[in-house]
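We treat protein structure as text, and this decision shapes the records that our systems exchange. Because each token names a local backbone shape, the row as a whole describes the fold. For reference, a complete record is included directly beneath this paragraph.
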Amino acid sequence: QVQLIESGGGLVQAGGSLRLACAASGRAISNYAMAWFRQAPGKEREFVAAINWSADSTSYTDSVKGRFTISRDNAKNTMYLQMNSLKPEDTAVYYCALRQSIAMLLPVKVSGYDNWGQGTQVTVSS
């Protein structure tokens, strides 16, 4: 069973940057699509970005396009989310997720992923 651990969250002022990491253990991630989701207080978990196994296909929700970059290093069994120009509305708990089956398109729903991390808090102050 794969375990996912997020890190890199914290408190940052609006306009600042953070880099999240998702380290996997128990299984190599090189064959699997992965994604970042986030959940703000009182809201449902929402899709942020996804990346295929070879990192040649990515997908972003509209609100983060041009500001966030998803990447992965399969040799390190780690996925990343570089977040620039952060806004207060980006405040949420950020979760990484992994899909263990092949998909023609990168899933953007929670149900499209099989394994989840515990989350890391990102707080953006105005």
Notes: The chain has no helices and eleven strands. The first strand starts at residue 3 and ends at 7.
